[in-house]
């Protein structure tokens, strides 16, 4: 379980996060929803200790992050995390070099699934393919948690479908996933839990399934209710 | 392992190359030639305690780096230019010995031998400290220390220089210790007219005060193109002397069309009894020292030395008896020697004489003479060991000689 | 340790092309320098001997033999060295900033590696050291080659051969880069690495706090400098030359090690807790 507890974060004088708390469970897809600039990426960065927080605490399986945590959790940001001059093969080799949890079999599977070319240079890839490489490098790690920052933004329709297919596959099964998005449409049917962010706080945290079953509302319906107020 | 070859290669390259370079430079012997003192006549034992210090320069390349060396009867040793030696510095041998023996006492002390006095019981030191003002130096104070060798007690204190305000600068030229008194001989440069004076300060060590001070010799303002200067006669800097011997010269600057040179037009030799402060002029007819620095005072006798042609003329003068002794002369080898200067020192009744310069075309002689019998005990020459193999262009300058 | 070595190797591969370019420039410029200097000496000799009817002996008397020092003192030789120094100096900053700047967001990956983040610091400083020593080693290798070229061009009687040692000891500016003893090598380059560690710390301060970090970095550098010169300062102005030179050297080494430890500790702290992508 990833626990985010009363996290506050300032950029200069501007408070971006004003005490954000939520949890994300293993085996569930948790979606952070909010408009651009609300601090979704900052939360993911903070979970990965890529940016300091001013207050609060983040626990992963009850422990604070240390170097071994990176074998348990991975982050797929919306930027490429490899050197542009590297080929896909080199990037995979790099991951294999440093991560004991790298799963070469899974990587090969993903490579075929996304129809990527080992010898292609990352810099030469289209935006959609770059995102796929990012996804490949993250998902080929045998980790318990995967964080994804806007995996669908700015990507063509076909790529989007391919990526969405990943979520229903065994590649995601049993993992805890936190995904951020500002448009929930594509993945509404995939997500288990929704965390609505607005103005630096969590405005609502609810189970998508419960909302559907008990109240007969879609995620978008709930969002409408919350934001109208 | 394909991706590791670059860094492996560069690290191997670094280790091999730099390793080889330093192993090589550590094992390859110094390329400097060895100098020896060859005996021409007399007893070679006479130079066993003689040490000549100088510097060697190889002039056959554009490389004008000189290396300090010592030449003794056993041959030459070059000062290593290793980093640690450079850090430690190369103080005069006497200071080095003081530092080894009296490490605590020598802390923070200048390495100028004139500032020290040593006898069997004490080692004394005096220097002048001052503050740098915005316009001029000021607040001169004497920094004095006396080490009692027997109980290792250090008596350190400072005394303000009297009339400090009138001074532009002050240098300690010699110090002497008599029982409970320390005597400082200083060169004072006055502020108002920049005249020099030789001053004597008597310091009462137990009270840590200046009990008496007086100017001994003043060099008055020169007129026109003449000027005065006062020098202390060379003597063993750290040993006790009852007298101070000063040479006061009046110098006239002569401007030729081609050069400017100085000529001594008047010369006075003054001895001062340091305890009674009694002054006495020493008059030796027909003695003209000019500007040479050869004469030496060994504590009881002044040996006036003048180069005349190929001879060194020595005129002894006993201060105890106030009497001029019989002058004698020592034959120098080769005429070139004279041109390039000589060094002298006196110890235990023996006169040591060496040329100050040597090169592939200039020979350098070494002479030891007995001052009582006036006989030459040793005559020799500095030579390159195994010099025949190649003719090297070099220059050897000797600037210091002492007898251990 | 294993991860540190992998990172060192990885970082070196990233710079390898630029590094070989520096080596290439140095080699070409210096060889050209050898040829140009040798030719100009020879043409001068030709002019004096054949046109002005000067005898060989007379010429050598006046102008001297040609030695490698003439080449080493020329801009052809020192220029590339200065260029390499500037290159390494520039790279001290680039080695960090290129992971953040532009399309390059490799810092995400570096910070998410399952290894202590100090290894990033260590691998980068090691690379600066490898580059520096690599250049020194390369220079030591090519000097004999350049001498050989000169040997081929200048006839025996006009030439004075020198050893690498002799050249280095007659040129103080070269003696800093290639000190004459191993002790100096360690001290000089140790001091250099100390400076690099201070700069790295300042860079990480900037990367952690941005604008405020620049000031913090400047202040840290100034404090480090003051701490480093404090023994000399105290020795000169307060203690009236209390220390012997060797004691002062040891004191300085101790101070250097303290500042180095502080820089490493601070960098580790910043990388772990304060760094921001």
Report helical residue fraction of chain A.
Answer: 25-40%
Average pLDDT of chain A: 90
Could you name the ranges of chain B where pLDDT drops below 50 across 5 or more consecutive residues? Answer: none
Q: What's the architecture of chain A, going by CATH?
A: 3-Layer(aba) Sandwich
User: How many helices of chain A in DSSP terms?
Assistant: 7
Multimeric state? heterotrimer
Low-confidence stretches of chain A: none
What is the first-to-last residue Cα distance of chain B? 67 Å
**Helix and strand sequence of chain A:** EEEHEEHHHEHEEEHH
List the strand order in the largest sheet of chain B: 1-26-25-23-22
List the helices and strands and how they pair.
The complex is a heterotrimer of chains A (229), B (404) and C (277).
Chain A lengths: L1 E10 L2 E11 L4 E5 L6 H8 L7 E6 L12 E4 L11 H11 L5 H11 L12 H13 L5 E5 L7 H12 L7 E6 L11 E6 L2 E7 H8 L3 H10 L1
Parallel strand pairs in A: 3-7, 3-8, 5-6, 6-7
Antiparallel strand pairs in A: 1-2, 1-4, 8-9
Chain B lengths: L4 H23 L7 E8 L7 E9 L7 E7 L2 E4 L4 H6 L4 H9 L14 E3 L3 E11 L4 E12 L4 E8 L6 E12 L2 E10 L5 E9 L4 E11 L6 E7 L10 E13 L4 E14 L5 E4 L13 E2 L3 E8 L2 E8 L4 E2 L3 E4 L4 H4 L2 E6 L2 E6 L1 E3 L4 E7 L5 E9 L9 E10 L1
Antiparallel strand pairs in B: 1-26, 2-3, 2-27, 3-4, 5-6, 6-7, 7-8, 9-10, 10-11, 11-12, 13-14, 14-15, 15-16, 17-18, 18-19, 19-20, 19-21, 22-23, 23-25, 24-27, 25-26
Chain C lengths: L1 H50 L4 H8 L2 E2 H5 L2 H23 L8 H6 L6 H36 L5 E2 L3 H7 L1 H6 L4 H28 L1 H28 L6 H30 L3
Parallel strand pairs in C: 1-2
Helix pairs in contact in C: 1-4, 1-6, 4-6, 6-9, 9-10, 9-11, 10-11
Explain how this protein is built.
The complex is a heterotrimer of chains A (229), B (404) and C (277). Chain A is built from seven helices and nine strands; from the N terminus they run βββαββαααβαβββαα. By secondary structure, chain A is of the alpha/beta class. Chain A has one domain (2-228): P-loop containing nucleotide triphosphate hydrolases (Rossmann fold). In chain A, the strands form two sheets. A six-stranded mixed beta sheet of chain A has the order 5-6-7-3-8-9, sandwiched between helices. The two termini of chain A are 31 Å apart. In chain A, 39% of the residues are buried. In chain B, 10% of the residues lie in helices and 51% in strands. Chain B has helices at 5-27, 83-88, 93-101, 336-339, and strands at 35-42, 50-58, 66-72, 75-78, 116-118, 122-132, 137-148, 153-160, 167-178, 181-190, 196-204, 209-219, 226-232, 243-255, 260-273, 279-282, 296-297, 301-308, 311-318, 323-324, 328-331, 342-347, 350-355, 357-359, 364-370, 376-384, 394-403. In chain B, the strands form six sheets. Chain B has a five-stranded antiparallel beta sheet with strand order 1-26-25-23-22, with no helix packed on it. In chain B, a hairpin with a 2-residue loop joins strand 22 and strand 23 (350-355). Chain C has two domains: 1-171, no CATH class; 181-277, no CATH class. Chain C is built from eleven helices and two strands, in the order ααβααααβααααα. Chain C has helices at residues 2-51, 56-63, 68-72, 75-97, 106-111, 118-153, 164-170, 172-177, 182-209, 211-238, 245-274; strands at residues 66-67, 159-160. Chain C has a two-stranded parallel ribbon. The chains are: A alpha/beta (229), B mainly beta (404), C mainly alpha (277).
């Amino acid at each position: 379980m990833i626990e985010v507890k009363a996290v506050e974060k300032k950029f200069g004088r501007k408070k971006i996060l004003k005490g954000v708390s939520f949890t994300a469970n293993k085996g569930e897809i948790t979606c952070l929803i909010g408009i651009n600039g609300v601090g979704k990426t900052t939360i993911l960065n903070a979970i990965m200790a890529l940016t300091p927080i001013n207050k609060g605490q983040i626990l992963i399986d009850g422990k604070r992050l240390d170097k071994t945590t990176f074998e348990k959790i991975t982050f797929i940001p919306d930027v490429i995390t490899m050197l542009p001059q590297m080929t896909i093969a080199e990037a995979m080799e790099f991951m294999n070099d440093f991560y004991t949890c790298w799963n070469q079999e899974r990587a090969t599977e993903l490579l075929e699934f996304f129809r990527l070319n080992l010898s292609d240079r990352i810099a030469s890839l289209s935006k959609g393919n770059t995102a796929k490489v990012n996804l490949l490098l993250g998902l080929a790690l045998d980790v318990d948690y995967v964080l994804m920052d806007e995996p669908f933004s700015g990507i063509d329709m076909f790529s989007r479908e391919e990526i969405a297919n990943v979520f229903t596959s065994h590649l995601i099964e049993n993992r805890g996933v936190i995904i951020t998005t500002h448009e929930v449409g594509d993945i509404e049917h995939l997500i288990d839990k929704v965390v609505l962010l607005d103005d630096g706080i969590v405005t609502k945290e609810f189970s998508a399934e419960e909302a559907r079953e008990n109240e007969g509302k879609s995620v978008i319906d709930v969002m409408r209710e919350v934001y109208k107020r | 392992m394909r991706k590791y070859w670059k860094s492996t290669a560069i690290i191997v390259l670094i280790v091999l190359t730099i390793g080889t370079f330093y192993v090589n430079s550590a094992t390859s012997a110094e390329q400097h030639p060895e100098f020896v003192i060859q005996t021409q006549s007399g007893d070679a034992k006479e130079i066993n305690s003689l040490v000549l210090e100088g510097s060697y320069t190889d002039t056959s390349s554009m490389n004008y780096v000189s290396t300090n060396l010592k030449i003794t009867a056993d041959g030459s040793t070059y000062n290593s230019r290793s980093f640690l030696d450079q850090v430690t510095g190369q103080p005069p041998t006497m200071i080095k010995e003081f530092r080894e023996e009296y490490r605590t006492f020598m802390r923070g002390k200048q390495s100028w031998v004139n500032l020290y006095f040593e006898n069997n019981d004490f080692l004394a030191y005096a220097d002048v400290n001052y503050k740098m003002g915005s316009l001029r130096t000021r607040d001169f104070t004497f920094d004095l220390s006396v080490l009692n060798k027997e109980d290792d007690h250090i008596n350190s204190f400072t005394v303000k220089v009297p009339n400090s305000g009138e001074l532009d600068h002050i240098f300690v030229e010699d110090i002497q210790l008599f029982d409970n008194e320390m005597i400082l001989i200083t060169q004072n440069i006055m502020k108002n007219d920049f005249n020099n004076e030789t001053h004597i300060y008597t310091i009462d060590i137990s009270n840590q005060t200046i009990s008496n001070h007086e100017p001994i010799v003043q060099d008055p303002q020169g007129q026109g193109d003449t000027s005065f200067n006062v020098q202390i006669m060379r003597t063993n800097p750290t040993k006790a002397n009852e007298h101070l011997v000063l040479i006061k010269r009046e110098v006239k600057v002569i401007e030729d069309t081609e050069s400017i040179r100085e000529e001594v037009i008047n010369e006075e030799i003054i001895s001062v009894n340091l305890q009674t402060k009694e002054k006495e002029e020493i008059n030796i007819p027909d003695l003209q020292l000019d500007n040479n620095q050869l004469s030496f005072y060994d504590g009881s006798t002044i040996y006036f030395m003048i180069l005349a042609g190929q001879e060194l003329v020595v005129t002894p003068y006993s201060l105890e008896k106030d009497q001029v002794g019989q002058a004698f002369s020592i034959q120098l080898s080769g005429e070139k020697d004279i041109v390039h200067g000589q060094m002298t020192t006196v110890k235990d009744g023996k006169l040591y004489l060496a040329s100050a310069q040597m090169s592939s075309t200039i020979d350098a002689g070494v002479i030891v003479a007995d001052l009582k019998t006036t006989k030459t005990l040793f005559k020799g020459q500095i030579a390159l060991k195994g010099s025949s193999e190649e003719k090297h262009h070099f220059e050897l300058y000797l600037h210091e000689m002492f007898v251990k | 340790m294993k991860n540190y070595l992998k990172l060192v190797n990885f970082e070196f591969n990233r710079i390898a092309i630029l590094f070989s370019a520096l080596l290439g420039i140095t080699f070409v410029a210096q060889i050209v320098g050898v040829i140009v200097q040798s030719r100009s000496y020879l043409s001068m000799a030709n002019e004096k001997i054949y046109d002005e009817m000067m005898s060989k002996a007379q010429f050598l008397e006046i102008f001297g033999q040609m030695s490698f020092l003439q080449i080493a003192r020329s801009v052809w030789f020192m220029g590339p060295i200065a260029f390499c120094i500037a290159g390494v100096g520039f790279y001290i900053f680039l080695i960090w900033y290129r992971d953040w700047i532009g399309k390059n967001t490799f810092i995400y990956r570096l910070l998410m590696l399952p290894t202590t983040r100090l290894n990033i610091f260590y691998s980068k400083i090691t690379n600066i050291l490898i580059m520096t020593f690599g250049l020194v080693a390369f220079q030591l290798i090519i000097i004999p080659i350049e001498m050989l070229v000169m040997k081929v061009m200048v006839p025996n009687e006009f030439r004075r051969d020198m050893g690498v040692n002799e050249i280095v000891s007659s040129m103080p500016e070269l003696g800093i880069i290639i000190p004459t003893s191993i002790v100096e090598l360690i001290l000089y380059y140790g001091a250099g690495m100390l400076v690099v560690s201070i700069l790295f710390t300042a860079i990480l301060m900037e990367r952690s706090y941005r604008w405020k970090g620049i000031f913090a970095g400047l202040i840290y550098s100034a404090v480090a400098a003051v701490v480093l010169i404090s023994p000399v300062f105290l020795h000169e102005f307060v203690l009236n030359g209390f220390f012997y030179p060797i004691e002062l050297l040891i004191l300085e080494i101790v101070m250097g090690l303290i500042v180095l430890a502080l820089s490493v500790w601070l960098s580790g702290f910043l990388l772990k807790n304060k760094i921001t992508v």
